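dude i think i finally got it to work??
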Amino acid sequence: MDDFSIFASATLHHHECRQSAWNETDQIRAAAGETVSHHTLCALLPVAYGDNGEEGRKPFVLVNPGLEMIYLARSALGQWAVEPNRAFVDAGFAPPPLTSTPVPGAVVELRGNQLVIGFRSGLMGPFDVNLNDEARNLVAAEGGAVVLMTHAVDPHEITDPTQLEPALRGDRTLMGYTQLAG
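look at this
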């Protein structure tokens, strides 16, 4: 834990890289060359379209941007809670529910059957996910995809769409419709 009083970061390390400790100094203790891994998943979820409530499938891309690291914010009462990375908020991602306003600070790009999520600031990402043909065609036809940034679930552990429920409604999720580049 690196505790900066108003926010903190919790990270996992190999014992040889960094000893477990609560660090309250102004120095972050990190091993050289350290990286944070991420997992992604694209799920096609049923959604209602238009005034008549016609259902169709829409591509939702789930990104857990840091499997080994989360940010924490201290509440007015002094309790710690998971807080999404500020770079995602600055890009335009917001807590649920989803709005139709495109995220201004991020774009997606199709590269064959891979979707790449990029950020205009360059501070985060890129994140990529493999798409099946149906998902690729839907992203191309719709001009983008819904992207969810969350630490609530590990995308690689999702085996059933109902397991996405914590990410779709949770307080540890930021989401937004992200348009295709170009």
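The helical segments are 86-91, 133-142, 165-169.
im so relieved honestly
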